[in-house]
Amino acid sequence: MKNYILTGIFLLLFTNSAFSQYFTLAPTGFVSKENLDYTVVEVPGAKQQELYDNVLKSINSLYSNPKNGLTLVPGQAITLAAYKNRGLKTSGGISGIYYDVDYTLSFLFKDGKIRINGPTFSAETMNYNGTVNKMNVKKFYFKSNGEPRGEKNHQIVNSYFNDLIKSILEKSANINNW
Asked: By C-alpha distance, which of 59, 63, 58, 75 is closest to 177?
């Protein structure tokens, strides 16, 4: 019965936030709506260990070999360092440009709360001549005045990371419902 209640709380929580973004890329990195480098997701009635366990199980089910990229503080924090080949597609050229992405996501836990630190990432692509082109994130996404350089690319990177976080949290909400 407790699992059904927790699942109901999670579903209610994530249904309400399904269309919201956790983070937006700024020249200084990802920031929340409150302009902080983290956001807090409230899960009323959930215990710290339960939240930790469910997010860890979620990551283990969504990633093929997560243990190589996980740093754990048992019951308190999870940091996931991952790589996605051709993970980020940006507009440009005839059909867009795919970048390989290295990223880090961090989750911290308290009773009833999950703190998510703003993602960090680097990206690179292989040029037609075989050389590697590393993305300078600040210059690629922002003008010198701090405004987004192109709305489409800015939306793509925001969606990419918000969708990653959303998939982990949604999977963690349903982990015990099988």
From this structure: 58
Query: pTM (2 decimals)?
Result: 0.85
Structural tokens at position 10: 């999670």
Q: Are 84 and 101 in contact (CB under 8 A)?
A: yes
Q: Which residue has the tokens 């215990």?
A: 47
For 58-112, the pLDDT digits (tens) are 999 999 888 889 999 999 999 999 999 999 988 877 788 899 999 999 999 999 9
Q: Shortest CA distance to 66 belongs to which of 75, 76, 56? A: 56
Residue for token pair 């082109």 = 133
- CB neighbourhood size of 47 (10 A): 15
Determine the residue type at 16.
Answer: N
| Structure-token pair, residue 114 | 């999950």
Strands 24-26 and 38-42: unpaired
Q: What is the DSSP code (8-state) at residue 67?
A: G
Q: How far is CA 21 from CA 54, 120, 175, in A?
A: 21, 16, 22
- Phi-psi region for residue 35, left (φ > 0), alpha (ψ -120 to 50) or beta? left
In this structure, the number of other CB atoms found within 10 A of the CB of residue 31 comes to 17
The torsion of the CA quartet 21, 23, 26, 29, rounded to 10 degrees, works out to -160
Task: Please give the Cα distance from 155 to 90 (Å, whole number).
Answer: 10
